[in-house]
Structures are given as structure tokens and as C-alpha cells.
Write a structure and sequence with these properties.
alpha+beta
Length: 96
Amino acid sequence: MAAGIAARTAHFALHRMPGPESLVGVVVPKRWAKRAVTRNTIKRQVYSVSAQASLPAAAYVVRLRTGFEGFRSATSDALRRAVRAELLQLFAQAGA
């Protein structure tokens, strides 16, 4: 991506491009999340956490860099908790 990486965790990268308003986009490739239900779960978590985060005005793209492995179900509560915890860490890094 042409934008600079604002923050990075084990599974996610947050790209930032300066702009007048805060916009958030999500990239979840099939390569890392094979099932649509998993991709949608991850996207919902990103939008939920980004709505609560206090970030400077800019356009942001959250990109899944590697897959989440070892979960019992494609949309389990454990997966949701793991994704949410990592996203909170990601947005905390970007806000600091």
C-alpha cells in the first residue's frame, strides 16, 4: 500500500493517509480468511473498534497480514475476542 504504516501487530497493519475526515476501510483477503463468515466477523470487529477509537482525522485502512489459526469455529467467540484484543492494541499504538 502506498500509505505509510501507522501501526502493526502480529495479524494486522494499519495504514494512514492524511485527509480532512476520518474514514476506515478494511482489507481481509481470502488468502488469510478462507470462509466468508470469518472475513465478515473480522470486518465487523474492525468497524466496531474503530468507532470507539480516538484517532486523528485521516483515512485509515486496516489490513489482515496473516491468518488466525487454531479456532474451533469460523466465527467462534474465542476468535472474536482474539481479533478484538489485537485491534484494540493496534488502535492504541496508532493513537499514541
